[in-house]
Task: structure prediction
Amino acid sequence: MAILLSSNAQWVLVSTFLLGIAAGLIGTLSYWKQQSLMSDALAHAALPGIVLAFIVLREKNLLVLIIGATISGLIGAFCIQWIRSFSRIKDDAAMGMILSVFFGLGIMLLTIANRLPGGNQSGLESFIFGQAAAMVKQDVYIMSLLALVVILAVVLLFKEWKLLLFDPAFGQGLGLPIRFLNGFYTVLLVLAVVIGLQAVGVILIAALLIIPPVSARYWTHSFKGMLVLSALFGGFSGAVGTLISAMGSGWPTGPFIIVTAACLFLTSLIFGLEKGLLVQYLLHRRQKRSVSPKPIPPDWGMPPKVREG
Amino acid sequence: MVALSVKDLAAAYRKNVVLHDVSFEIKAGTLTGIVGPNGAGKSTLIKSLLGLHPILSGSVSFFGSPLEKVKKRIGYVPQRGSVDWDFPTDALDVVTMGLYGQIGWLKWPSKRHRQKALEALDKMGMADYAQRQISQLSGGQQQRVFLARALVQDADLYFMDEPLAGVDAATEKAIMITLQELKAKGKTVLVVHHDLETVEDYFDHVLLLNRTVIAHGKTEEVFTPELIAKTYGGRLKLTKEGMGYGHLVKQ
Result:
């Protein structure tokens, strides 16, 4: 735990906490857009951009790598969109194709980068499983700042996101710029993914966007509540995972963050107040008891009163 | 006054042209039923008029202006099945969405807005369900919520896509009373309707549609057995038993 004493580690902790919040928020939007897997495709699509940025500049500057990752992630998103609208190939197949092709390209470029002079010590491999300890202060600042941008964008446009997710056609009728919002959402999603690449890694970052909202769903019936809880779950996983990985030298951060998130999910699945297995079981048992002597008249869903004209 | 004017509209769905040469004018203060067989392009027509579906050609004007200038005067009730009712929100919240245009960007609804939404819910007999999860509402109740959301918009021209599909009798009555009230206030309402038996009771004007306008005018002039048969093609035969020519029989 000696690392806890260093101020750098504390900053890393803050940045993974903010990353988790941002991922939990944007992940909730993805959940209701039914595009949870999109984050996985984008993360994998970002890898070639990272490696190419390194090959071109020959130095590991996080801001430049993030820009490379963003561009290549957006190209991946564009490709998925393009395949979807100009062919009969379905969403899942399109994402699967882009995900593996871009990741394969990224790994190929990585072997090339490793043969370059100085490439061996580049630490680019840490982008695959995530290595928060490898972050320097500047990395932490960049990551925290971008995470705050994502958080602010989701919070400020709360009402607009809700309408976009629930009823985009009606929103468009009201004059809501649906195309702009969809584009903005994709940019935020790519941003949330790429800033998490160094700490969580290409392979696992999607889980930080998928697991917290799914867990939150077991506790609440309101969209606001789901956003808040998902953000908390994400932030908690990010911070705790970083803490645990800091206990051993060279332990990857990503897996610990994701396992923490998975523990929260299991807890939610069983004990969740709204849809948890335990509550469902107890409710079912109570209903079973109450129906035994005489049957309940069926509820036809009639409203309590009907206005007479 | 003309509320809606459509000239030579054509629209395609994927590779098929589903609407062609659609031209008609709707007078303000009328209640029009859009009637036609499945696949006639009824929903596509409404979506094309509202800019939700791309049009191939033609022009549309509302109160003499293009859509962009009069968006706030237009209300839309989509098909109930077009949204995910599992979305975590309550009835009052959905109705409040109808006010988002008035609330403006980046601002949160105030108490006054919530009060207005609650009044609209009450008008649809749904005040007791304001805090109810939308996933726990029956089909008819969900439709009332959609109607209430359109009412708070306080629009002058309403488009409703099958508001009476799959609802219980009480809801159908409540919705029709509301539509009559809108008409009495001078509002213009267009309703995609599928039940031929009730057309004459519900609408003062009818637009018979099958890929193009077959006939349009006052219900008593247009809703005739000949024109209905023309709209529905040879697949359907009208019988004169029971309630007039209400019954359609598939051959």
